[in-house]
Amino acid sequence: MSDSESLEQIRSRIDALDNQIQELINQRAAAAQAVARIKQREDADAFFYRPEREAAILRTIKQRNTGPMGSEEMARLFREIMSACLALELPMRIAFLGPAGTFTQAAALKHFGHSVETVPMQSIPDIFREVESGNAQYGVVPVENSTEGVINHTLDMFIASSLSICGEVMMRIHHHLLSQESDLSKIKRVYSHQQSLAQCRLWLDRNLPHAEQITVGSNAEAARLVGKESGSAAIAGEMAAELYHLKGLARNIEDEPDNTTRFLVVGRQLASPSGEDKTTLMCATRNVAGGLNALLAPLAEHGISMSRIESRPSRQGNWDYLFFIDINGHREDENVQQALAVLERESRLLKVLGSYPNAVL
Ligand SMILES: O=C(O)C(=O)C[C@]1(C(=O)O)C=C[C@@H](O)C=C1
């Protein structure tokens, strides 16, 4: 490369590079097809999607990247290449909390890439049912927000479900005030999901103190309603703005600058270790004070760090409290196995909800 190169010369170099990239992508796609044939031969019910392998590939890409393209951008490109390769092996259906345009759909596409079919569901239980029945291979559900805390509806689903967690997605959530109107003073009503209204409480108090706040099932639903109603605005994200052709009256109105939502990928599959994994446990005790200590001590003794603990009243009668605990490590790691054996004895109920790679993107 030199500065004396003309525009034509640089463009012909780009053409030659594109040619090579295209050839290499097709070679990669053929290799993925060969992997699929081996998987099928070994097991007729094999899982084609391998979260641990995808996470390891994306981590390597980020680590070895030297630029000028940024590591996140490079990983996103490879995310899409892998998504297209997997679609050649098996077209994938991913259930998400609809309607179209929700942050859950954005999370599903971020995690799986755009070569999957995303299928909108009306509720979190519907997502679990769709995956349990095999109509969709995986589902994506929100589980906690950095401003508003845990989404109890999702945690409660794991009590009775046979599905496992096989991945997590972290999404920076930017909320926008969307409307047909071009003037804030025209807004009399604001529609959104209750979590989104809560995440923008200060902004609303300051800028729209007299507007009525109306809770609806999702922010995409809010955007859909506002597309048909003057004098109203929705709090929703970029995807919903595009889908329902709304103007952004104000952007990034979330109160917390690093407002992040964590989503879980659920499926009928147990992910293998990727080297950097997390395990989610559901445990029950009867006596909260002593019981909780009995759960946590074995983790500390085996050098396992805990990244999250949530307690829920069980509502089942058999025990008083349920704890949802995230630990670092995979259920196949020796120290995790040893700690789980102790927990099994100490708790009234222990369910490993899944071991899965830490979010990479
Ligand atoms: O390695 C595999 O098992 C593959 O199927 C290949 C591949 C890839 O494109 O690299 C595709 C899909 C899987 O989820 C993981 C990786």
Descriptive account of the structure:
By secondary structure, this protein is of the alpha/beta class. It has 4 domains: 7-88, Chorismate Mutase Domain, subunit A, CATH 1.20.59.10; 92-173 and 260-267, D-Maltodextrin-Binding Protein, domain 2 (3-Layer(aba) Sandwich); 176-250, D-Maltodextrin-Binding Protein, domain 2, CATH 3.40.190.10; 277-357, Alpha-Beta Plaits (2-Layer Sandwich). Helices cover 42% and strands 25% of the residues. It contains 12 helices and 15 strands. The strands form 3 sheets. Strands 1, 2, 3, 4, 5 and 11 form a 6-stranded mixed β-sheet that branches. The structure holds prephenic acid. Prephenic acid binds next to helix 1, helix 2 and helix 3. Catalyzes the Claisen rearrangement of chorismate to prephenate and the decarboxylation/dehydration of prephenate to phenylpyruvate. GO terms for molecular function: chorismate mutase activity; prephenate dehydratase activity. Residues 280-357 form the ACT domain. It is found in: Cytoplasm.
